[in-house]
From TrEMBL:
GO terms for cellular component: Atg1/ULK1 kinase complex; phagophore assembly site membrane. The keyword Cytoplasm applies. GO terms for molecular function: molecular adaptor activity; protein kinase activator activity. It comes from Exophiala xenobiotica. Residues 43-448 form the Autophagy protein ATG17-like domain. Residues 1-27 are annotated as: Disordered. This is Autophagy-related protein 17. Pfam families: ATG17_like (PF04108). Its main location: cytoplasm. Autophagy-specific protein that functions in response to autophagy-inducing signals as a scaffold to recruit other ATG proteins to organize preautophagosomal structure (PAS) formation. Modulates the timing and magnitude of the autophagy response, such as the size of the sequestering vesicles. Plays particularly a role in pexophagy and nucleophagy. Autophagy-specific protein that functions in response to autophagy-inducing signals as a scaffold to recruit other ATG proteins to organize pre-autophagosomal structure (PAS) formation. Modulates the timing and magnitude of the autophagy response, such as the size of the sequestering vesicles. Plays particularly a role in pexophagy and nucleophagy.
Amino acid sequence: MAQSPYSAQQPSARSSPSHSLQGTSPPATVETIVSHLVASKRSLGSITLVHRATTILTEARASIESTTALLAKTTYLRRSVASQLKILRGVQFELESAAQAIQHDFQAIIKELDETGARLLQCIDSLKETTIEEAFRSTTGTQSTISKDTLHDFVDDNGVENIKQAMRAAIDNVQDNQHEINQSIQTLEEDLQSINEVLVNRAEESAAESELQQPTIPMSLSILEHHAKEMAQGLESLVKHFDLCVTAIKHTEGGGEAVVQTMNANAEDLSEAVGMGMDELQAPAQPMNEEERLEMLQVLENDAAEVDEVVMELQDRHAEMEAQLDRISQWRERQGNAYADVATAFRLMEKISGRLSGYVAETARRASRWNEEKAKIEDGIGGMEELCSYYANFLHAYDGLIIEVDRRRATKKQMERVIAQAHSQLAQIYEQDRQLRVKFRDDLGEFLPGDIWPGVNALPPRFEIHRVDEDGFDASVPDLPQKTVEEAARRFKTGR
């Protein structure tokens, strides 16, 4: 009994051809057998698909092996870059912290500068608002004093302007310095961001590109191996079917001539990958009885109906293997791109690492410059505070001057009262002494010789009280309004 050429084929999407007789079909004619042989011969062109399946399996294995090695290298480089990037981010954080500390320090000292400047302006405004009392200006006739109407006229603003100019220059230097620090840090940030952009997975990857992930690769290889095996078995079944057709021709009268004519007529349609089978047809046939022949023809008829189905299955499996290879190729391409990205990131990392010392040194230089400018600003603040103190003392002294003038005027009046009282008492004593001398002379003078004391008849001495100094300033002590004196005393006591 002849065996079905498809008996070794495993079940697939299509049902396997029969292994035994299916019913009792009428005996096949020579034309039918020849047509089956031609169809079988044409189906053997599927050998190219099987060869391609072997090539696909080889390429897939090579791609998976090389890509797996590339993936390991990519993973190692990515971890290395990520580790170094973490270190660089730490350095960047320290540089940013240093820049922020400078910025905060700058803002604090600018706030102090503004507050001191406001106090200085307030002191200057107080000087401008404090008018010199008319009593002071009327006590002297010099032109320079007359032209000075307020306390501000007595001070020189050049010191204030010099400090302001120095502060503006220092602040401009600090702001330029801060801008350069920020620019340096921004450059580092852009460098690190460029690495991040290289390392980040492409957001625009389509679903087809991300369909095949590494965990599915073993499964894909298993699928390819299964398809290749099934295709080999299918081709083997087609070959057995072809051999069965040849055997049937040999045992059919007139089959050889019909085959030669049919083959010659269809030579262009038949695959060049397989021989014409003439050697098999010319070989002697094995002995076979009629029962075996009929059973062989029945199997041949049943199997011939499934030849196209087997060819279609080979084509489907080939298409699936091509699709799997395409997905593996895409995976390999993505991994190649990923490796190229990581390698690019690694090269960028080397360049950035080479420039890192420059970033740190630049920040250190900027910090040193900040300390220098900070010292200048602090000196300016100190100078402004000294001016504030000087102007405040000036205002305080002017109030004290008002109080002092009022005190001196009161003292002068008190001295004048004492002098007037002394003059009155001296006049009284003089008159009293004169009268007593006259009375003494009238009562006893005639009894005393004139040469006993020459001054016995002299008049009493006269005394006068007058200033010893001659500058005359105290003689013109200004007479200030009492309200002015009271307000000055209040300010002097409370320190304005």
